[in-house]
Amino acid sequence: MKHFIILLAAVIAFASCKKDNQSNPVEKVSKQMTSFKITHSDGKARTNTYSFDDQNRIIVDAYENGKTTYSYPEKNKIIEQDYFNNAPTTSKVFELDERGLVVKGWEKNAAGTIVAELAYEYDKNNYMVKYTYSRPNYLYEAFYTIENDRLLSVKKYLNNAIDGHYAMMYDNAMPYKGDPMYWTLPHATVFGRRSAWLPSGEKGYSATNVLLYDLRYNWTFDKDGYPVQREVKDLMDPTYFFKIEYGYKQL
């Protein structure tokens, strides 16, 4: 469940750094993430490799035994299609507003039947402040607290009852640069901003406010200031560890 909580936050959002780092002036170099590899303490690893069209929009996210494709049939629409061993499985259709941000979505099963609805809300600075996923007899909501261009916490509700929350830490915070914030993939700028700063850790709590995990992040950067690796440890579980490596191409 811990992996799911951490990686789910990974699948719903991107951000873009709007601040300059005086001690690390690397803003002249622009890069795009092309790979994402996560390795767990048991040695198991998963690598995602990304392909883009001539407008630098993601069109394929390839991984072991499957892939996800993205198409853009209209200016305000994105279609996401999942495949397992080349067979189509679930898909999503996203609707964008005039800002180019996703505001609605519909999840479909392999037969093309809508099984869930998604909704996204943003503040005036394009930070995501609410995410909703609903299907019959199931309602998941997440509320994001933003302060000083930082994501501070996320409260989660399941069927209108509190289901826990997690809080971010920013000790020795670095301005966020490029696509690979710790939960991101290279197409999620359409889901608004999350934080202008890289977090140093994350604490997760249950619905009754019991501490479930206490993560610490150790970032490694390339010569241009882009994060190339993040090591994650849980202070509550010394055996828990994973590492994320990011690959880029220069634009």
In brief:
This is DUF4595 domain-containing protein. With 251 residues, this protein is mainly β.
Structure in words:
By secondary structure, this protein is mainly beta. The chain has a single domain, classed as Porin, CATH 2.40.160. The chain is about 5% helix and about 60% strand. It contains one helix and 18 strands. The protein has one helix at about 1-10, and strands spanning about 30-40, 45-50, 60-65, 65-75, 75-85, 85-95, 100-110, 115-120, 130-135, 140-145, 150-160, 160-170, 175, 195-200, 200-205, 210-220, 225-235, 235-250. It has a 16-stranded antiparallel barrel. The protein has a two-stranded antiparallel ribbon with strand order 13-14. A hairpin with a 2-residue loop joins strand 3 (about 60-65) and strand 4. The model is unreliable at about 1-25 and about 180-185 (pLDDT under 50). This is DUF4595 domain-containing protein.
> How far apart, in Å, are the first and last alpha carbons?
37 Å
Low-confidence stretches: 1-27, 179-184
Shape: globular
Overall number of strands: 18
What is the number of independent domains? Answer: 1
Query: Looking across the biggest beta sheet, what order are the strands in?
Result: 1-2-3-4-5-6-7-8-9-10-11-12-15-16-17-18
Primary descriptors:
16-stranded antiparallel barrel; two-stranded antiparallel sheet; 251 residues; mainly beta; disordered N terminus; Porin; DUF4595 domain-containing protein
